[in-house]
User: Which sequence fits this backbone?
């Protein structure tokens, strides 16, 4: 039991780091857009603040999204197949992200169209971290010493 929890924890940490790296990629894209269109770049603290903000969001999403999605994927794929586990976890993570963002957008009186668009972007933003979370936790569970190699998961 502790081995499974440790594997999921390692996967969650990797997912959080991937979410922060996505913040770097978004900042570089926004900076390139600002340079090309000759608009304001946001100042010298825009990049670090965006990366810090995405890291904090990643930390918040670990218990709310990545770990539940990884566990749902593990339960759905009892045979231990990584592809099945990844598909189930991605579907769960996408659904959870869409629900969270849609509720937050409605709470801030955003329009329905903007709420739906934000939900779609959120679902897409969690796909790579979820895939890394599931893959790393699956690999970590395979590396545990003393565990029979025939055992599922």
Assistant:
């Amino acid at each position: 039991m502790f081995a499974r929890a440790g594997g999921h924890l390692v996967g969650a940490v990797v997912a959080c780091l991937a979410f922060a790296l996505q913040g770097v990629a978004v900042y570089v894209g926004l900076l390139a857009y600002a340079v090309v269109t000759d608009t304001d770049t946001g100042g010298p603290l825009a990049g670090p603040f965006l990366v810090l903000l995405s890291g904090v969001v990643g930390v918040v999403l670990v218990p709310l999204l990545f770990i539940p999605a990884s566990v749902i994927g593990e339960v759905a794929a009892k045979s231990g197949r990584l592809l099945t586990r990844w598909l189930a976890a991605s579907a769960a993570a996408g659904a959870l992200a869409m629900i969270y963002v849609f509720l937050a957008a409605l709470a801030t009186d955003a329009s329905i169209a903007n709420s739906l668009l934000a939900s779609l972007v959120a679902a897409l933003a969690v796909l790579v971290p979820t895939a890394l979370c599931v893959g790393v936790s699956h690999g970590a569970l395979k590396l545990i010493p003393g565990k029979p190699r025939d055992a599922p998961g």
Notes: The chain has one domain: 2-142.
